[in-house]
Design goal:
Elements (H helix, E strand, L loop, with lengths): L16 H8 L16 E2 L16 E2 L6
Antiparallel strand pairs: 1-2
Length: about 70
Amino acid sequence: MSKIYNFKTIQVMPVSMEEAWNFFSSPANLAAITPEKLQFKIISAHNGEVMYPGQLIEYTVKPILG
């Protein structure tokens, strides 16, 4: 019989839920949460200030050897 494993993690942030939501729901902040070495860049023309269901965001990254 196979075993089932669970992995649970909790992230505690020193900000309010509203501040966290405002940060993570902004496409402009995607680069801030992506490692710099990946050279994340949004290439979509119109992103809007807040993400919404169904939104498409085009971006580039350079994950392997630049």
